């Protein structure tokens, strides 16, 4: 290393799950690997810090999974949530590769635990990290350090030297000084641009000012912008993203998983006009929870309210914030500053429309409404047991889908045709290849792990 310069085999930009999987895979093939992470050490790992599980195909039950989850079922779930907006060949390739990931991840020190209960319904399909995403990250960092992978924190990449699809070097800042990093291969795993409100506004308009960002404030899309400006082919719609309804009282950035609300299926959701606007019982929560951010974003002032009664209070994982409580619907409306008569009419009309049935949130039950403009097709129960509760919610953006197009080896593709010579991408920065729209719980970690390992192996093999 010369003053202001570093030479390595593989440069990995980013510090989350995808970056760690790439770095470890490359190192295990003999490459000299450097990770540069924009965030300080405490905030390392991007959105991985806030995750809980990953979705992988598997042939049989395990100590932590209750049954098999075939490649065909995984594909069917992905096809349903994306409504066909996915690269079928690449997605099926990822699903096939996911079968080996649980073993490989465990070999890197990550441990799993049985699924949580409640509305998650993921005990068969998703593997939960023991201790959550931060523990998973710590295990991967420990393995990386033991392998001799160097990590530089607070080192943002400011420019990339790319000529005709060939990466030569990156310019970064470290300890306040410019640093030129020469590498034989590049793995970009630096996340999306969800923390860049101005970029979000390019697609969404001014409504993006009311969005809350669930994860790290460091994911501003700087590396993504550099890559697209220097000839990498883009993929995805800038307005498509993983967007869920989160507690409106959450901080602007980094509220994480504890601000997410899983209680939609137990009640009704109204906008600031006290009107329902979507079927709260359309499908099981893990397959539909990620539509609610976009739904709320389309409502006046990007605000809505989940309303339920006493019988549902302990049926789901609570938010970090306590629900707003009242002894009557009128009192609840006043506390929420909603039109009282309209909310009473909405709740009253809903209650009258509820049909007799046997409530069971673990199956598609027969509890539904009849006669409403917007029916609730499952899990419909009258709101009649005081006290009544409400959570205010806003769109919570997890990560964006506009990214870099890649092939089955995670190699970046170029504008105008052709493949990059020595540039790979993994994780949120290329998630739009698989996720054109929609989301199902745990797929983000699958994308990061599978394509991270592929990118690392490809980068090391190129070296």
TrEMBL record:
Transmembrane residue ranges: none
InterPro entries registered for this protein in UniProt: Ala_DH/PNT_CS2, CobZ, FAD-dep_OxRdtase_2_FAD-bd, FAD-oxidoreductase_2, FAD/NAD-bd_sf, Succ_DH/fumarate_Rdtase_cat_sf
GO molecular function: oxidoreductase activity
Entry keywords, A to Z: FAD, Flavoprotein, Oxidoreductase
Cofactor(s) the record lists: FAD
Domain FAD-dependent oxidoreductase 2 FAD-binding: residue ranges: 9-436
Domain of life of the organism encoding this protein: Bacteria
PANTHER family in alphabetical order: FAD-DEPENDENT OXIDOREDUCTASE 2 FAD BINDING DOMAIN-CONTAINING PROTEIN, FUMARATE REDUCTASE
Full protein name: FAD-dependent tricarballylate dehydrogenase TcuA
The organism's taxonomic lineage, starting at the top: Bacteria, Pseudomonadati, Pseudomonadota, Alphaproteobacteria, Hyphomicrobiales
